[in-house]
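Go through the following before class.
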Amino acid sequence: LPRKTRRCPKVTLVLDLDETLVHSSLEGGANVSFSFPVNFNNQSHDVKVRCRPKLTEFMEHVSKLFEIVVFTASQRIYAEALLNILDPKREYIRHRVYRDSCVVVDGNFIKDLTVLGRDIRRTIIVDNSPQAFGFQLENGVPIESWFDDEDDVELLELLPFLDELVDVEDVRPYIKEKFKLREKAQWISDQLQ
């Protein structure tokens, strides 16, 4: 990413896209927020998108406090078109990072936060897939996967915790204490042996 300017917020908030902020499908269904065409393998597909409840309020809030980066394991052609609709004037999202910046490990796309060129002590990632931020567990804030629950309030429930991290020197001890992901991963590993 380009270097931060002096006016840029100190902490970088990295947001996953699919099943964190939106749910996209080629199928129809109720409560579709919008749709758009995208070409995959020389075929045009109509992508239907549902926005997670309170997405706009969440983005308005966090974009005032953090440098916002969307880091998705989705292909650029789809994600770029989607983000152009979600944030057409680039009011909220400063940078977009796609699948080609992920590291592939055993078929899984890992979002190595060091590729962003930001101070890792001041970088947070919110993702519904903890394995996606497995290289930096202490930077990761897990969120439930979202598909279509109109009563979901996960984004709003994250705000008080994120607000606490705006001025800290190192976000990792706070995230580690709150979510204990390394301990949970170790427990799962122990159970599998």
Observations:
- The radius of gyration is 17 Å.
- The chain has a mean pLDDT of 94.
- Residues 181-192 form the longest helix (12 residues).
- The helical segments are 55-65, 76-86, 154-164, 172-179, 181-192.
